[in-house]
Amino acid sequence: MSTIVSDAWHESGIERDRDLHAFLCGLEADPSLLHPEQLRERLIALDDLDAGFGDLDSEDSTRSTDSRIHKRAKALRTQLEAANAELYQSVRADVARGAQLHTFLKWIQGSVTQNGSGSPLPGFGFDFRDDLVSGVLQLREPSEPNLRRSPEMVPYQPTPVRHILHLIAATALVEDDVFVDLGSGLGHVPLLVSMMTGAQSVGIEVQAAYVASARECAQSLRLSRLQFIPQDAREADLSSGTVFYLYSPFDGSILTDVLSALRMESTCRPLKICSLGPCTRTISSETWLKASAPPDMGRITVFDTQ
Fold first, then answer.
1. Which pLDDT score, from 0 to 100, does residue 55 have?
2. In which order are the strands placed within the sheet that holds 301-305?
3. I want to staple 303 with a disulfide (CB 3.0 to 4.6 A). Which of 169, 189, 273, 292 is the partner?
4. 176-198 per-residue burial string, b: 16 or more CB within 10 A, e: under 16
5. pLDDT score for 1
């Protein structure tokens, strides 16, 4: 390495450390970050720490910054994460004893990012509400699914919280409803629906390991009006459901068969079918269903039976 390149690298390292020092000083000078109600600000600060320092536990991170700055960053991260953990545990305790979740609901409902149309932003990205719900639910993700996935099964991805909130509002879910998530994965949607509405909720998921995690969570939160069933959606008993949800869990013949079963159920009672993702295109072509708004695979679309 030439002397010029070496000097330039050294200067850039000093400048970087100076910037990181100033960044840390700004966070350390704000004690309000540790207040419970500053959750969103803490999560932003943690993201900024990650962007500025990378993995604070890695050797590369230690070598790339001044050791004193690195120690300060780790200590700050520990403080912020501890404040979040305390908050999540407080919400979990409230859920378990059946208390009103006013503060929790204020956080996830009061700052829904909208595009001016009254609907949440489209797409499948996540935001701070997903961090909050993940911290409260504390779902254990299995290391390996215990079932070989068929080509028509779609890899699991949780529904962003903003879309779950839209689903609850758009369907006007109440305690008398029976909400059924077809392809529920780890159970984020039924769990949140149960917590927020009191409606009876059912998750149907073919991967038994995911069902086991969802059941553990429901039991730890003492949510009684909640059921998770390890079953293929084509074989499930759908006779009690009033609101059904599909986040494109499968396609092809599986989706066709499930829609056929739902159509049979619709001859007995009115249903609402909610969708998100590519399956919306297929569902919108069903003549026995009518969309309450123009179908949009990037947002929740609610279909009513005709």
1. 64
2. 226-230, 200-205, 178-182, 243-246, 272-275, 301-305, 289-291
3. 273
4. ebbbbbbbbbbbbbbbbbbbbbb
5. 47
